């Protein structure tokens, strides 16, 4: 049976959306959920928070998988520089969407690929931070309420589940990587994996 030649890959995330995205690359991978504090530090800017957490997730999981390539990712949404987190409830999600309608929200999606084969932490981590500008439609409360009841995106930053019905509440998405908004920038990731020796098209029997 044909297989891809590559080192062991581990996704350090509990997100089913990231797992679905990674599965598109047709490489086998394991999933291990990191247990870290995701609270932003005082005075920390959103892109710095996202990148720090992506590295922390990858490094924490790498400690349990010696020699593996571990993927960590984190996303922070901001409006006028203020962070917008995961709503966690219907009421908070509605409040988020009401605040964001007709406006442009910036999504900072940070990525880290930790190479457990390298002993120097400074060389082990490849990192990237992909910026996505999302303009929300100016919709009435009735439509926002209906969207939330159908999609229930309470675990998504900014309540924008763009891989589902959430695409209907968006007016425009601007990014160098179309998968970044969903939580795992595949263009940046495939570049990192290539640098780490992963082959996507070379198969052997």
Describe the structure.
- It is a single chain.
- By secondary structure, this protein is α+β, with helices and mostly antiparallel strands.
- Helix content is 30%, strand content 26%.
- It has a single domain, classed as Maf protein (Alpha-Beta Complex), CATH 3.90.950.10.
- Strands 2, 3, 4, 5, 6, 7 and 8 form a seven-stranded mixed sheet that branches. The protein has a two-stranded antiparallel sheet with strand order 1-9.
List keywords for this structure.
single chain; 205 residues; alpha+beta; Maf protein; 7-stranded mixed sheet; two-stranded antiparallel sheet; 9 strands; elongated
Put the structure in a nutshell.
With 205 residues, the protein is of the alpha+beta class. The protein is built from six helices and nine strands. The model has no long low-confidence stretch (mean pLDDT 91).
* Spatial separation of the terminal alpha carbons: 6 Å
What is the CATH class name?
Alpha Beta
Proper CATH architecture: Alpha-Beta Complex
Q: What fraction of the residues are assigned to beta strands by DSSP? A: 25-35%
Helix percent reads 25-40%
Q: What class would the helix/strand composition place it in?
A: alpha+beta
CA-based shape: elongated
- Looking at the structure, the CATH topology is Maf protein
Give helix and strand order, one letter per element, not per position. EEHEHEEHEHEHEHE
Radius of gyration: 18 Å
Outline the biggest β-sheet: 7 strands, mixed
**Into how many domains do the coordinates divide?**
1
- Count all strands and give the number: 9
Mean pLDDT: 91
Number of contiguous helices: 6
Unreliable stretches covering 5 or more consecutive residues: none
């Amino acid at each position: 049976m044909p297989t891809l030649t590559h080192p062991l890959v581990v996704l350090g995330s509990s997100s089913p959306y990231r797992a679905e995205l990674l599965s598109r690359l047709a490489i086998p991978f394991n999933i291990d959920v990191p247990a870290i504090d995701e609270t932003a530090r005082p005075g920390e800017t959103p892109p710095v928070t996202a990148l720090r957490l992506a590295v922390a997730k990858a490094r924490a999981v790498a400690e349990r998988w010696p020699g593996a390539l571990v993927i960590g990712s984190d996303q922070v949404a901001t409006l006028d520089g203020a962070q917008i987190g995961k709503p966690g409830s219907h009421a908070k999600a509605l409040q988020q969407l009401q605040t964001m309608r007709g406006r442009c929200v910036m999504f900072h999606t940070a990525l880290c690929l930790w190479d457990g084969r390298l002993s120097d932490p400074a060389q082990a981590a490849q990192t990237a931070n992909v910026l996505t500008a999302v303009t929300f439609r100016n919709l009435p409360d009735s439509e926002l309420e209906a969207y939330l009841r159908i999609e229930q995106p309470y675990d998504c930053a900014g309540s924008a589940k763009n891989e589902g019905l959430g695409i209907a509440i968006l007016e425009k998405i601007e990014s160098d990587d179309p998968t970044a908004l969903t939580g795992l920038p595949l263009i940046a990731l495939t570049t990192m994996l290539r640098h780490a020796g992963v082959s996507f098209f070379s198969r052997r029997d």
